[in-house]
Write a structure and sequence with these properties.
3 domains, binds nicotinamide-adenine-dinucleotide, alpha/beta, 457 residues, Rossmann fold
Length: 457
């Protein structure tokens, strides 16, 4: 992949080529990180032409190198008394706009390159919200699947025993991501509180409602992605009313993307997990799906038997085979490839909005864009989660607890602003309707200006 892309950068600004070549040379074993960097850099040439001061100040080189990377051992015992050793990570990527902010992912695929890709994306996403937060990300190669509550608790306590010294409401504020939901945030917060001997609510977001959490945080990423898609469509005189929607994944982002799409009148006909997908032409029964996934921690394969009717499960199939007008990839990185994109185009998809981080491969993005499909990159479309985390921090700082309606209205306002910032930047740089360029340029300019103002640090 990298050879094609280094060659493909021939027409770009020399600073773009130099920065990318440096990343390839220094981090040859981090393909996801390289992919995320390339996806941003290849849109920035017009910005650098307008702002030679960014090049002069080495902004690209500095942006591609995390401010701090923490890698640590996480020892824990399973229920049978056996010792396990996992690896923990926290990458504090860029703090120019505020305390590092970004989730923790617990999944066997997590390594330093994956955490760096997510942290890099997070810098621009957080900048796009217009709020005061820097970019960071963390996690572990621990696999919570099949582990008991007690095992997850012991793992989280061990993880936080090292991480706590690097965190703080003014320093670094993690949240959830794949494999880290309300249960894990609870165990992590408890251990932080014990070690720090402080009630510091703003140190973690995604907390329980009774102890500092915010309403709408659970729903925010999925709701936000749909609100973004809706605004893209509205700008072109269309809406979600009566439209067929397909969602991938069935975790936090997927479930609430499906919920908001239904609330706006769409028919959500399919969702998936790593084993396959379910198709329900009548529209997914979300109460049942939440019971299976959130309460029982089961698989989507269990859905058809309990739903009855014509719902069916397709083992191992790609959910993107299902015809739809709006596609919402909400599972994981690189889950929608060029072949999937061609299937979506054949079925006349109108818009793709990424609920997950980098779920669409670069080749698939090209296929969609060449076919004229509206495409919203994750760093814009899924920014509602982190934005609501900041709303949670605001409530913590003021010792307040806002209503669902008020918080959701704030989320809607923020998503409209994120959309409009992307739209405005794309137009300003001569590429109207290009949300990838718009998101990268708008996020980059905000961080770059802050870095310039703060000197060489
Ligand atoms: N939770 C948030 O607030 C948030 C915010 C921004 C972005 N994201 C991103 O959204 C994505 C999903 O995160 P989440 O919080 O919903 O995690 P989650 O653990 O709740 O859900 C992940 C889902 O993806 C499914 N999945 C994993 N690999 C798959 C594959 N190869 N094919 C199909 N399904 C697969 C899992 O079965 C699960 O249903 C990730 O990319 C994450 O980085 C999450």
């Amino acid at each position: 992949m990298s050879d094609v892309h280094v060659t493909g950068l021939a027409d770009h600004h020399p600073a773009v080529r130099a920065a990318y070549e440096r990343v390839v040379r220094r981090d040859p074993d981090q393909p996801e990180f390289r992919q995320a960097v390339l996806e941003v850099l290849e849109t920035l040439s017009p910005v650098l032409v307008q702002h030679p001061e960014y090049v002069e100040a080495g902004i690209l080189e500095r942006l591609c190198e995390p401010e701090r990377q923490i890698v640590f051992r996480v020892p824990w015992r399973d229920d049978r008394g056996r010792v396990h050793v996992n690896r923990g990570f926290r990458v504090e990527f860029n703090g120019a706009l505020g305390p590092y902010k970004g989730g923790l992912r617990f999944h066997p695929s997590v390594d330093l390159g994956v955490v760096k890709f997510l942290g890099f994306e997070q810098i621009f996403k957080n900048a796009l919200t217009g709020m005061s937060i820097g970019g960071g990300k963390g996690g572990s190669d621990f696999d919570p699947k099949g582990r008991s509550d007690a095992e997850v608790e012991r793992f989280c306590q061990s993880f936080m025993t090292e991480l706590f010294r690097h965190l703080g409401e003014h320093t670094d504020v993690p949240a959830g991501d794949i494999g880290v939901g309300g249960r894990e945030i609870g165990y992590l917060f408890g251990q932080y509180r014990r070690l720090a001997n402080r009630w510091e609510a703003g140190v973690l977001t995604g907390k329980g409602l009774e102890w500092g959490g915010s309403r709408v945080r659970t729903e925010a990423t999925g709701y936000g992605a749909v609100l973004f898609a809706q605004r893209m469509l509205e700008r072109r005189g269309r809406s979600l009313e009566g439209v067929r929607v397909v969602v991938s994944g069935s975790g936090n982002v997927a479930l609430y993307a499906a919920e908001k799409a239904q609330q706006l009148g769409a028919v959500v006909v399919a969702c998936s997990d790593s084993g396959g997908y379910v198709l329900d032409e009548k529209g997914l029964d979300l109460d049942l799906l939440k019971q299976i996934k959130e309460v029982e921690r089961g698989r989507v394969a269990d859905y058809p038997a309990r739903r009855g009717g014509a719902a069916r499960y397709v083992a191992g199939g790609s959910v993107w085979e299902v015809p739809c007008t709006v596609a919402l990839p909400c599972a994981t990185q690189n889950e929608l490839d060029a072949e999937d994109a061609r299937a979506l185009v054949r079925n006349e998809v109108a818009a793709v909005a990424e609920g997950a981080n980098m779920p669409t491969t670069p080749e698939a993005v090209r296929v969609l864009r060449e076919a004229g499909v509206l495409f919203a990159p994750g760093k814009a479309a899924n920014a509602g989660g982190v934005a609501t985390s900041v709303l949670e921090m605001r409530q913590n700082a003021r010792r307040e607890s806002w209503s669902f309606e008020y918080t959701e209205a704030e989320l809607a306002r923020i998503m409209a602003d994120v959309h409009d910032r992307c739209e405005e930047a794309a137009e300003r740089h001569g590429a109207p309707g290009d949300y990838v360029l718009g998101a990268n340029a708008a996020g980059f300019e905000r961080v770059a200006d802050a870095m310039l103002a703060q000197g060489l640090v």
